Structures are given as C-alpha cells and as structure tokens.
Amino acid sequence: xxxxxxxxxxxxxxxxxxxxxxxxxxxxxxxxxxxxxxxxxxxxxxxxxxxxxxxxxxxxxxxxxxxxxxxxxxxxxxxxxxxxxxxxxxxxxxxxxxxxxxxxxxxxxxxxxxxxxxxxxxxxxxxxxxxxxxxxxxxxxxxxxx
Length: 146
What we know:
Elements: H1 3-8, H2 11-25, E1 31-37, H3 44-54, E2 65-71, E3 76-81, H4 83-86, H5 95-106, H6 110-126, E4 143-145
Parallel strand pairs: 1-2, 1-4
Antiparallel strand pairs: 2-3
C-alpha cells in the first residue's frame, strides 16, 4: 500500500472517523463507507463506482449505501450514493455534504472534513431512510484503503 495513503490520517483520526460513521448510522438505515487511495488514475467517478462495487456496497437491502472516496495524490474526492438513494432524492442532494468536506479539505483538515461530511450525510439520509428498531448494520464501518 502506498505510504501516502497510510500517512493521510493518523490512527486516532481514523478512530474518530469510524466513530462518526457509527454516529451517523445510528440515525439512518443508510450505510456509509470511506475509501482512501493514492490515485483514481484519471477518472474519479469511474473509480468510485468500481470501489463501490468491489466493497459490495450495492448489496444493502434498500440500496442505500454511500461511499466517500478520496484520491490523496490527485487531491480529489467523490461521493456516490446507491440507486435506492438516487431514485428518491433531488439531483443536488450531495452538494451540502460535498461543500462541507471541501471547505475542511481546503484548510488541510482532512479528518475533520470527513467527520463533518459523514455526519452531514447521515443527517441528509435520515429524512429518507430513518433508522428502524430492527435495523441491521449491513456493511463494515471501517475505512478501506487501496
């Protein structure tokens, strides 16, 4: 694995990000993952979809998985929500979450940007996919790296 990917976040920051995923998912049946790589190799949208599929994020019951993909060397990130989300939300649904992350990233606050973006995504998802009493965590809350 690329050293820049490992150096992107401190272990304590990774713990805080995983905690934010747990907190966000406590409010919604949506599933949120973060994936960090060195580069998307030129097409961040295509790579985001590829990682989404590789992580089996399309296998949630309500098709309500969300990935926040970060390409460290490219200085880019992407957010993708599965079909269950995209069928019912407006086209600009992810703009607030993207803006939140981008504002922190521009200041070099990568962990805080991810944390605030995750929490914002959870709040956005809550109105469309509220958490039910029998909700099951369908995907790991860990940060994946490539």
